[in-house]
Write a structure and sequence with these properties.
By secondary structure, the protein is of the alpha/beta class. It folds into 2 domains: 136 residues, NAD(P)-binding Rossmann-like Domain (Rossmann fold, 3-Layer(aba) Sandwich), CATH 3.40.50.720; 147 residues, Dihydrodipicolinate Reductase, domain 2, CATH 3.30.360. Helices cover 30% and strands 23% of the residues. The strands form 3 sheets. A 6-stranded parallel beta sheet has the order 5-2-1-6-7-8, sandwiched between helices. It has a 6-stranded mixed beta sheet with strand order 10-9-11-14-13-12. A two-stranded antiparallel sheet has the order 3-4. A hairpin with a 6-residue loop joins strand 13 and strand 14. Helix 1 packs across helix 9, helix 4 runs parallel beside helix 6 and helix 4 crosses helix 7. The chain is globular. The two termini are 24 Å apart. 46% of the residues are buried.
Length: 338
C-alpha cells in the first residue's frame, strides 16, 4: 500500500476506527489539525467494508493486518486488548509509533504510560509503543499532580461514577435500549453488557471482581496512578461505580497533601494546571457535571473544600471519558512526539 503524503502530512492508522473511541479519535484529529496526509482506518473482520468520514472525504475500513502498517508513521489502537497485543509489536517493528488505548501495555515496565500534562518526559524512553492510561486514571493524576506541585502528595481516596460509554458502543446501546423499554412501561430486558440493568440503576462494579473483592477497574486506577506519578508506594483507596450516564466520568476525591493546603490555594493550583478548568461557586450552584464535560477536552473541577475532620482537600472532577479519557490524550501524545 503506497503512502499518500502532503508536504507535512503523516500516514496515520486507526485500529478500531468504527468503535466509540475510534470515532471520537477521528473527530479529535480533525479538530486539532493533526497533520494527516493519509488515513488508514482499520478494524477486525466484522467492520471491514464500512466507511468513515475524515478530511472531507470517505475512507474504506480495511482489515487490521501486519502489512497494513507498512509506511505508517502513527498507529492509534482504539480496539480490544487482544488485537493490540497481537498487532502493536508488528506496527512498531515496521517503524510506526504505536499509541495504545487498551490496558495491554500499561504496566509493562518498558512501555511509557503517559498523560502529557503530567509526565511528557517519559516519552523520551519509548521503544515504539506508548500506552494511554485508563479513562478514570487520566483526570485523577492531573488533579493529584496539580496539588502535588503545590504542597506534595501523601494519599487519595477516590470514588468514581463512570458512564456506560466506558464499555464502548455496546454499553451506550444497552442503556439506550433499556431507557426506551422502561419509558414505554416494559421491563428493561435481560442485560448483556452489564451484569444487571443499568437504566435507573447504579452498579458498584466496573469490569470484574478479583478474589480480594476489588474490581479490575479499581486496580487499574491504583497501579496506573502510581506508575504515572512515579510514586510506587502512594496510598490510594478506590471504589469504581457504573452509573446510567452516556458520556462523562465523575469522581469524588479526598486528597492528603504533605503540607496543609487551604481550599483557596488548592483551587488556585488546580486552575493553573494545563488542561484543568475550575468551576466552583456552590452558592450559585456552579459546579461541573457529566453533561458539562461531554464534548470537552478539559478536566472540570469543582466542590473544592477542606475536610471537616482533617487537613485534607475534597474535590469533584469530571471529564469526557471518550475525549480526554481516551482519544484526546492519545492525540496529545502524538503531538508531543511531533
Amino acid at each position: 500500500m503506497a503512502a499518500v503524503r502532503t508536504e507535512n502530512g503523516r500516514v496515520v492508522a486507526v485500529v478500531g476506527a468504527t468503535g466509540a473511541v475510534g470515532t471520537v479519535l477521528l473527530e479529535v484529529l480533525a479538530k486539532r489539525g493533526f497533520p494527516v496526509g493519509e488515513l488508514r482506518p482499520l478494524a477486525s473482520e466484522r467492520s471491514v467494508g464500512q466507511r468513515v468520514q475524515f478530511g472531507g472525504r470517505s475512507w474504506d475500513v480495511e482489515l487490521a493486518t501486519p502489512e497494513a502498517f507498512d509506511d505508517v508513521d502513527f498507529v492509534f489502537f482504539a480496539a480490544t486488548g487482544a488485537l493490540s497485543k497481537q498487532l502493536a509489536p508488528e506496527a512498531a517493528r515496521r517503524g510506526a509509533v504505536v499509541i495504545d488505548k487498551s490496558s495491554t501495555w500499561r504496566m509493562d515496565p518498558s512501555v511509557p504510560l503517559v498523560v502529557p500534562e503530567v509526565n511528557a518526559d517519559a516519552l523520551e524512553k519509548n521503544g515504539g509503543i506508548i500506552a494511554c492510561p485508563n479513562c478514570t486514571t487520566i483526570p485523577l493524576v492531573m488533579v493529584l499532580e496539580a496539588l502535588r506541585r503545590e504542597a506534595g502528595l501523601r494519599s487519595a481516596v477516590v470514588t468514581t461514577l463512570q458512564a456506560v460509554s466506558g464499555a464502548g458502543q455496546p454499553g451506550i446501546d444497552e442503556l439506550d435500549a433499556q431507557l426506551a423499554a422502561t419509558a414505554g412501561g416494559a421491563p428493561a430486558g435481560a442485560p448483556k453488557v452489564f451484569p444487571m440493568a443499568i437504566a435507573h440503576n447504579v452498579l458498584p462494579l466496573c469490569e470484574t471482581f478479583r478474589d480480594d473483592g476489588y474490581s479490575t477497574e479499581e486496580m487499574k486506577l491504583l497501579d496506573e496512578t502510581r506508575k504515572i506519578l512515579d510514586m510506587p508506594e502512594l496510598a490510594i483507596s478506590m471504589t469504581c461505580v457504573r452509573v446510567p450516564v452516556r458520556v462523562g466520568h465523575s469522581a469524588s476525591v479526598l486528597v492528603e497533601t504533605e503540607r496543609p493546603l487551604s481550599a483557596e490555594a488548592a483551587r488556585a493550583a488546580l486552575a493553573r494546571f494545563p488542561g484543568i478548568e475550575v468551576r466552583d461557586d456552590p452558592a450559585r450552584n456552579l459546579f461541573p457535571t457529566a453533561l458539562d464535560a461531554a464534548g470537552s477536552d478539559d478536566v472540570l473541577v469543582g466542590r473544592v473544600r477542606r475536610d471537616l475532620g482533617s487537613d485534607r482537600i475534597w474535590l469533584w472532577e469530571v471529564s469526557d471519558n471518550l475525549r480526554k479519557g481516551a482519544a484526546t490524550n492519545a492525540v496529545q501524545i502524538a503531538e508531543r512526539l511531533l
